[in-house]
Amino acid sequence: MYKKIExxxxxxxxxxxxxxxxxxxxxxxxxxxxxxxxxxxxxGGAACMACCRTGSGCNKVTVCFx
Length: 66
Prior knowledge:
- The protein is built from 1 helix and 4 strands; from the N terminus they run H-E-E-E-E.
- It is an alpha+beta fold.
- It starts with a helix and ends with a strand.
């Protein structure tokens, strides 16, 4: 019975809390992390965080929120 309740709670939690794929890398000096609601580099075009420099674009995705 406990396993069934635990499984139900886990499935319910998964519906409201997004799974995150995180890379160990951080942004280099001079870059800052920026949030994007949709990224073509992520599965299904999910939201992401990327390393960006003002005026010269972003060079890598650090986290995909899938």
